[in-house]
């Protein structure tokens, strides 16, 4: 318990995301003082073990940078201190027409200083924390394609002015083949005043994943710190991230991502105690740690939060460790899914993903990408996710495809995966089952798709477990032997045992359940086979065969599927929504 391992409880269920939607959710935007706690959901947090706290370990310490933003260059300027700005009446049209340059209020971004001050939103106690004075150095890697000028500058200024200079090895700006002229010589010229800023102009569009890799290839720092190109790093943001990596090279440290309003450019803090999670089919989201868990475990605002997945854009990782992990799958295109990939990889191959509450970075959340996708956007993201599913999800990839069943129908070409599969073997990574049980046990999407009595439409009788086999009997809601689950892994399950298919003409039996055994799988209620929707079809046979009640109403057998036969139609007592 006190060993610094995960502790957690399982709380109530909430509705999961709609199938097929592959969007990211923005974090709950809460008012500065607490706000509503959001959905109560199960959680695991990792509180540092007694005695292992980095801040208290021996060594020389140096105090975090104090707030250098309290005396800004131009205190009267609009947007100063992160305050909201209004567009003047006579500029409304202009502001409106410039919105699409970045899918946020570009007019206002240009209006406010590139080095504006923002409020120190860190929880109380952060500014008193100490860090080691031998922290590793970092290379900041910021990729962009057609980023808005003032926003890109503000991102860079915030890094340079709110980080201890000796910790910044360099700032690598990776220009992912932008089309805007100002991102060429004009940008080079502007940045030449900062010796630490390097610009890599890519000769073709790489997409953010391979653009980050191009930056990582030339990075000289001990740690890689990735950032989006429309951020504002807050006071003391960097030291706590590097402190974690120094403590263990397998720790991947993320700041709390705060919100820069796309409408009025105000800098807003977010509710504390949020974890990065996903729902099927691998949609990223934020989830509040339930109040009772916070109280029971006495979790403090400054405590580090372990996350099943990271948002993706903002994190520090030991450079050698990143390369040992095989970086990102370079086969991921343009945008999306790489946060799932790196998260699963880190956890399953021995690392940890953490949110560090004393590190805070604002990010402009936009409703749409302001740049073009070389190919279809949805398809690109789906293909990326399918690559991740194929490499990391084991038998649970059925849950992914089950919640995005159209992907199976699409005949998606995910490309070659040999290297990724080899890598997973070489690193001796744990199973996805382990990940679900140990890192994300409160994943809300239930494994069970349907449950209860399994009634035959023609005979109105129910399947019953009888010793080592199954039979058909009058239905009895109180009979536990008649209770079955149909799972997303497509098993017909009764406790530990599963109904096992037989060859056509044969009778089904019982077998110990195993989600990896394809010979145990049945298709039921699948949108992919609408004609067999109510049937229970054997999956591994080339010719579809279905579970059937015989005319004598006593026994079960497997027979060639007949989509109109009521003897082959079955209904469960309960069906659960996705
Ligand atoms: O082809 C591209 N080349 C690029 O260089 C596409 C994008 N980019 C750049 C882009 O200019 C930006 O700086 O890559 C960065 C990320 O792209 P965004 O800002 O359009 O992405 P996002 O903020 O909508 O999405 C989040 O998910 C992405 C999934 O691939 C990345 O992981 C982003 O880094 C990530 N952003 C965050 O985690 C910030 C918090 C958002 C949330 C939740
Ligand atoms: Mn972004």
What does this molecule look like?
Pathway: Protein modification; protein glycosylation. It comes from Apteryx mantelli (North Island brown kiwi). Its cofactor is Mn(2+). The chain is α+β, with helices and mostly antiparallel strands and 578 residues long. Helix content is 21%, strand content 24%. It is built from 14 helices and 28 strands. The strands form 8 sheets. It has a 6-stranded antiparallel sheet with strand order 23-22-21-20-17-28, with no helix packed on it. Strands 7-6-5-8-15 form a 5-stranded mixed sheet, sandwiched between helices. Strands 9, 10, 11, 14 and 16 form a 5-stranded mixed sheet that branches. β26 (545-549) and β27 (556-560) form a beta hairpin. The longest helix has 16 residues, at 377-392. It is elongated. The model is unreliable at 1-61 (pLDDT under 50). The protein binds ligand LR7 and manganese (II) ion. The site of ligand LR7 has 25 residues, from β5, α5 and α9.
| Gyration radius from CA atoms, angstroms | 27 Å
The general outline is elongated
> How many strands, what sense, and barrel or not for the largest sheet?
6 strands, antiparallel
E-strand count: 28
Helical residue percent?
Answer: 10-25%
Global structural class: alpha+beta
Give the N-to-C terminal Cα separation: 34 Å
- Total DSSP helices: 14
Percent strand equals 15-25%
* Overall residue-averaged pLDDT value: 87
Query: Could you tell me which ligands this complex binds, including any ions or cofactors?
Result: ligand LR7, manganese (II) ion
Residue stretches low in confidence (pLDDT < 50, at least 5 long) are: 1-61
Strand arrangement, largest sheet? 23-22-21-20-17-28
